[in-house]
TrEMBL record:
Protein name (database record): Tumor necrosis factor receptor superfamily member 6-like
GO biological process: positive regulation of apoptotic process; TRAIL-activated apoptotic signaling pathway
TNFR-Cys domain: residues covered: 21-61
Residue ranges occupied by any Death domain in the UniProt entry: 147-211
Residues passing through the membrane, by range: 76-99
Length: 227
């Protein structure tokens, strides 16, 4: 099955199967089961590219050699320290403002399924429509990750086993596991319902809008929460 993050390299014939590879910007090691293509890494500002990312290997980076003098290094360190302090104070103030705003609007953001109807989505291409929407869940607030996946009845040890992965890869791995576990019963409506139950209506609406705009799903009707 061709996944949404793969492309066909060689078509199927009577002597050989279809050959697929990850789309540009993503990769999968040949010795791994390529159920999900990983995003290519980017080198940091103090690094340079040794080897560009390909469909089968990640980007390789190395530290740039410094040609600056000790005096220049001292000045640079002082400037960077000052910039860091200013950015840190700005970040603390910004977090406080956001927290205060969220606290004041908590009541208005709360959602009760029995009060506000939510649309039912119909996939246009079966499970491929569902897996194509995984990327939309990357916007899910990290504070809700564990609660969201527990709401999907994913075991705690399975959730913890993906803690070492990046934010995006962790989302994709656990959603793919959930789809495999649910089989034909897996539905985007179930995922959105889990978000609604966690009072994440705004996130659910954003994912729904993206799924419809991308052409993966279409609206069937409004219901009171029963999929």
């Amino acid at each position: 099955m061709l996944l949404s993050d793969q492309e066909i390299v060689r078509g199927c014939s009577h002597t050989q199967d279809t050959l697929c590879q990850c789309k540009p910007g993503k990769y999968c090691h040949p010795d791994e089961a390529c159920e999900i293509c990983k995003k290519c890494s980017r080198c940091n500002s103090d690094e340079e590219v040794v080897k560009n990312c390909t469909s089968t290997s990640n980007t390789e980076c190395k530290k740039r050699q410094s040609n600056s003098s000790p005096e220049a290094d001292t000045t640079l360190t002082a400037v960077l320290t000052l910039v860091f302090v200013v950015l840190f104070l700005g970040l603390v103030i910004l977090i406080f403002i956001i927290w205060k705003k969220k606290w004041k609007t908590a009541d208005s953001n709360s959602f009760k399924p029995e009060e506000v109807p939510f649309p039912t989505l119909i996939p246009k291409n079966g499970v491929e429509s569902l897996t194509a929407c995984f990327e939309f869940f990357e916007e899910l607030n990290v504070d809700f990750h564990n609660r969201f996946f527990r709401k999907l009845s994913i075991e705690d040890n399975k959730i913890r086993s993906k803690d070492h992965h990046s934010h995006e890869d962790r989302i994709h791995y656990l959603l793919a596991y959930w789809v495999e576990k649910k089989g034909k019963e897996a539905s985007l409506n179930d995922l959105l319902r889990a978000l609604l139950d966690l009072n994440q209506r705004r996130t659910a609406e954003t994912i729904m809008d993206n799924a419809v705009k991308k052409g993966y799903y279409e609206l069937e009707s409004f219901s009171l929460g029963d999929d």
